[in-house]
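Supplementary notes for students who missed Thursday's class. We covered one full example, reproduced here. Read the sequence, then the structure, then the short commentary at the end.
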Amino acid sequence: MDLFNSALGKNITFVRPAYFIISGLSGIPNINYYYVFLFFIYIVSVLGNTIVMAVICLDHNLRTPKFIAVFNLAFVDLFGNTALVPKLLDIFLFNHRYIAYNNCLTFLFFCYTCLSMQSFNLVALSYDRLVAIIFPLHYQVKMTHRFMFSLIASFWVFVIIAVLIAVGLITRLSFCESVVINSYFCDHGQIYRLACNDHYPNYVLSCLYPVLIFWLPLLFILLSYLYIGCTLAKVATVQQGLKAFKTCIGHLSLVAIYFIPLLITFTLMENIHPNARIINLSLTSVFPPMLNPIIYVLQTQEIKESIKKLFKIRVQSKITTTM
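Structure (token representation):
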């Protein structure tokens, strides 16, 4: 982070606190039950995403470009929830609300990286559906393993650099008065507003990044499905169109679960109570990673058949060993 600060001049010093205080929810009785509820969501998320990743690894038939993106989505969900929920429980259930300055920035980095990657994973899956339905004869040529790996790797590089820039700009802020973060984690927007020096670059990023990371991916996804719908309406019968669109139901469910709560929360951010904002954002962070593997298991025929096949092989091997 010294690179950001050295560019500003050697004589500039910044007032950095030893720690931040995470305020969390306030004035709500028996709030610990809510954190226990988040813990159970976390356990379901870990089990579900681990199963999806294991099934994709064990079944060679699932090693296709589409399931590379699905595996990455499960990995990001697992990693993101693991970065957030255990620390959240430590802060509020065990009352460790003081978090060291560097630890807070690290916490911020991992939370925002995973949250952003979820958005771009949905872009990769929507592009896969677009090519599969609009160009079915060219799918094997256009959607290769190398292309999908390159696409996902480019998303990772972009997100990591973007979040590092946001974290780096926080290191040039001075905190002269309050160090209380009115959120449930080290929230970028809540942190830079505490600064007592110029935080205009941070403000610009807080306006730019939602457009780049949430609105543009959502626009691409909506336009891709609009194009799919228009194309199917022209060239396919109603039954053929419904059959083709059925393959998109799982992905559309993931899009709705991820984007709708975020859009509602950020649209009403200034008009809702801080407690309501914290609850909305915390549920938005932990619910999609829990629901994503459940939806993919229920909606994706390949995964259902793979689980049945692996379970059958497991049962047969047990019978063989007992005999």
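Commentary. The mean pLDDT is 86. The beta strands are 19-22, 98-100, 180-181. If anything here is unclear, bring it to office hours.
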